[in-house]
Amino acid sequence: xxxxxxxxxxxLLSLGIAAGGYLAGTxxxxxRLADRVVSVKGLAEREVRADLxxxxxRFVATGNDLAExxxxxxxxxxxxxxxxxxxxxxxxxVVSRGLxxxxxxxxxxxxxxxxxRFIVTRTLTVRTADxxxxxxxxQDLAGLLDQGVVLGGDSGGNxxxxxxxxxxxxxxxxxxxxxxxxxxxxxxxAADSGARLGGIRRANQGVFQILASNDVxxxxxxxxxxxxxxxxxxxxxxxxx
Length: 241
Prior knowledge:
The protein is α+β, with helices and mostly antiparallel strands.
């Protein structure tokens, strides 16, 4: 009598294991279905124009007589201010006047002879929203050269920098456009795969970039008045049958 009982118990155990395996398989399938996601990128761009110009005008004089060197830089400064006035850049647009004096003989670790003891550098910085006037003036520096004023600068040159400061005014609209473009791509993907688009699972706004409109190698965005603002948003959507 014990054999039929054992057979019945073994049968019930087998059925339980089989049922458990079926349920487990169903749960895995559901989890995988829930994880069906399409990740797409949406691009938005705007053509903008700079609204701020910053122009450092740097000139240097050297010599062994400090008074003479200072007098030379004072004459150069007067010439630069007259140049700006001729180009309709007012004096109040000059927001800073820097002065740097170097005495080479006072340098502790100087080596070799010194031809010019003093180096005096003056920098006038123009800051204005009138970018077109600054751009035009920066292309007409020959008059200063004729007066013996040589403008110099660091490795980036001595030209003006043009900035776009109204990014916050267009951010919301650009993010909406990028999301719309991402959704269109996701809907196409879903249609091609025989599914429907569900809700947004994850979204990444992306980083806003301000680029030169002329995409030429070596072009520095800050030197260009016309610019392109770009953002690429990444959005994950679920797919449903």
